[in-house]
Structure formats: C-alpha cells, structure tokens
Amino acid sequence: MTQRYAVSPRETAGMNTTELREHFLIERLFVADDITLVYTHYDRMIVGGAVPTDKPLALPCPPNLKADYFLERRELGILNVGGAGQVTVDGTTYELGNQDCLYVGKGAQDVQFLSSSADEPARYYLLSAPAHAQHPTTLKTQADATPVEMGAVETANQRTIYKYIYAEGIQSCQLVMGLTQLKTGSVWNTMPSHTHDRRMEAYLYFNMPAGQRVLHMMGEPNETRPLWVSNEQAILSPPWSIHTGCGSSNYAFIWGMAGENREYTDMDAVALDQLR
C-alpha cells in the first residue's frame, strides 16, 4: 500500500504538471490477479482496485494500518466496473454485476474477491474510510439505485446519477459513494463546480472509449489547475479544491467522499464567473 500526503492550496499553486500528477492522480489501480491500495491523508481514505481472474483475492491488511484485519476500524465500499463477479464477506457470497455496489461494515474479517469469468474479470473499485460504528453489509444493484437525471444537452452535461452509499441509501459511518454516467454528446461533469470543505472526494473515471481523455480541473476556484486523465485512473480531490472535468467523449465516473457528514447535497457552489 502506497501513501499520498495532504498538501495545502499554497503548495499546490506552485506545482508543475509532474508534481500535480504525483500528488493527485492515481494512474494504475487495476492490475490482474492483484489488489492495489493507496492510503491518502485526506480524511484517511484508502482508494483501491482488485482484479481477480481464475482465483480469489483476499483483502489484505497492510502493516501500516496497525490492525489485526483491514476492517477492524474501517468500512469499505466496493463498486464493480468490470465483468460479473462475487464478493464473499465472512462466508456470505454477494453477486456483483457491472456497476453494482456492496458496502462492507466495520468488523468483517474475511473479504474475498472473485470473477465469474477469467476472460472477462470483475474490476472492483474500492473506497475505505475509518469507521466508529458497525453497519450491516449491504448490496445495492444499479437497478436498485434510483437514477437522477441532471444537466441538459444545451450545456453538454446531460447525465444520470446513481446514488448507493449516502444518507438516504445504504447506511455507513462516513462513506458516501455513487456513480455518474454522461449521455452521448455530453462531456462536462460536476458543472457548475463546487467545493465542500467538510470532506474530501475521490473520482474514478471509467467507461472511456480507447484513445479518449478527460481534462480534470482542480485547485482553488481562483487558482485552478488541469490534469489529463485516462480510462480507469483516479483523482484525489482535497476538501478545498473544485472538481470538475471535460472529456473528449462521454464517459462515466465514480464519486466517493469521507468527512464530516453523508449529505449528498452538502456543497459550496462556485459560479462560472468566479473560476480563474
């Protein structure tokens, strides 16, 4: 498990492109037959990916967690962006199709990731935050996640939002998680942009056609910085930073947050004429 340390707006304003990518972009999360974990010092969120092929993968407990098992003092959100698979939690098996979500509560000791087919493996995106209480392990399929339609064709941001783990959905201690799919012809996400100083956020961009990219914008509203992002790469967004992007085609992204609350609407809007 690698680490990413928190940096301030002042430090970020002076970074070059290489430094921005080193601090805020996770370039490779999905490795066949492996689990990749990145520990961030933004609300101590762990971002990860698991790609089992012909054998199960067990969720490890890295030594720097100083725990007997990974979820001893943590909770976990799992969202599948690949083929069909199964996640086994302390002997109970949950079937996850593409874009289905599983919440695993504090105290679960044995978490195993499997794929239904080695030729089309599951690709599990993982978000984990510290937890102070135990909530039940809960599966929610994309069909069960009531979609919300937002945006418009005229502003190139027509999109469908699926909410999984949040105040009115799957219960958690502080984890919030869902995904957004942009419609064909729409390219802007999270526009108008916003900040929420009470919690960090991570984005995983996926469903991006070959050769296409997203230009992700971050930074303080009056001091923005760009990052070019490829398919299945993740962005770490500090609480003080905006997070918005524009793609060369339509795409999808998973949003996940941890911090002071689980209210989906807790955000401080930034008007377009304030961006610099």
Automatic annotation (TrEMBL):
UniProt keyword Oxidoreductase present: no
Pathway: Glycan metabolism; pectin degradation; 2-dehydro-3-deoxy-D-gluconate from pectin: step 4/5
InterPro entries documented for this protein: KduI, KduI/IolB_isomerase, KduI_N, RmlC-like_jellyroll, RmlC_Cupin_sf
Binding site for Zn(2+): H194, H196, E201, H243
Enzyme category, top tier: isomerase
UniProt xrefs under SUPFAM superfamilies: RmlC-like cupins (SSF51182)
Keywords annotated in UniProt: Isomerase, Metal-binding, Zinc
Taxonomic superkingdom: Bacteria
Cofactor note: Binds 1 zinc ion per subunit.
Pfam assignment, any one: KduI
Keyword Metal-binding attached: yes
Assigned EC number: 5.3.1.17
Family, similarity comment: Belongs to the KduI family.
Primary role: Catalyzes the isomerization of 5-dehydro-4-deoxy-D-glucuronate to 3-deoxy-D-glycero-2,5-hexodiulosonate.
Protein name: 4-deoxy-L-threo-5-hexosulose-uronate ketol-isomerase
Native source species: Hymenobacter nitidus
Gene behind this protein: kduI
